[in-house]
Design a protein that fits this description.
The chain is 48% helix and 14% strand. The chain is α/β, with parallel strands linked by helices and 199 residues long.
């Protein structure tokens, strides 16, 4: 059993689809949903590094896509893009029941954090969290792993780290974490490996 578990959010705890937001607002823009996605996507990295506030993001996005609708509807459309990955939630709940401290490490932003933390009960089980927009750096930059280990006070050699992106897992391994590349098609095997990977 690991001494701690560090979870990514996107495509691990929550599946997400930015296209869902684009499709919701398509009728209020002079562009197709695919074009909306392409025009807004370059704003995501600065938002997730905290270089853009949510308000600034919506200002820039509205201008890029010619949005003609209500600002609240735009925000709601960008917030509600998630679907719970129940097998991972079950795993988290069992780790919690076994007394394993749970932590989060995610490239995310000030639009999505309030939404998922208030709408999905599973996030109340985590004792600490590192969000990219709050620390000004993103995975796979090695600095965010240093911040995570120091801030959360975890022993990386005894901590399993679950992420869906190979480059993030590689960076986590370089930082000393017991990284597991998450693929929902191989959930059972990954879960078993996570339990057995740390003695």
């Amino acid at each position: 059993m690991p001494s701690a578990a560090l979870f990514d959010i996107g495509n691990v705890i929550l599946f997400f689809d930015f296209g869902k937001a684009a499709r919701k607002i398509e009728s209020l823009c002079p562009f197709s949903a695919e074009e909306i996605f392409q025009k807004v996507q370059p704003l995501t990295p600065p938002l997730e590094r905290g270089e853009l506030t949510p308000g600034e993001f919506f200002d820039h996005a509205s201008q890029r896509i010619g949005y003609q609708g209500d600002r609240d509807f735009l925000r709601e459309s960008f917030e509600d893009i998630f679907e719970l990955n129940q097998p991972v939630v079950d795993w988290i709940e069992e780790l919690d029941a076994d007394g394993v401290p749970l932590f989060l490490l995610s490239n995310t932003n000030g639009i999505h954090v309030p939404f998922f933390e208030s709408n999905y009960e599973v996030f109340s089980r985590f004792q600490g969290r590192i969000y990219s927009h709050e620390v000004g750096t993103m995975k796979p930059d090695r600095e965010i792993y240093r911040i995570t280990i120091e801030t959360l006070g975890i022993d990386p050699a005894q901590t399993i780290y679950i992420d869906d992106l190979p480059e993030n897992c590689e960076a986590g391994s370089e930082a000393g974490l017991q990284a597991l590349h998450y693929d929902p098609a191989n959930h059972a095997a990954i879960r078993q490996k996570g339990t057995a990977s740390v003695s």
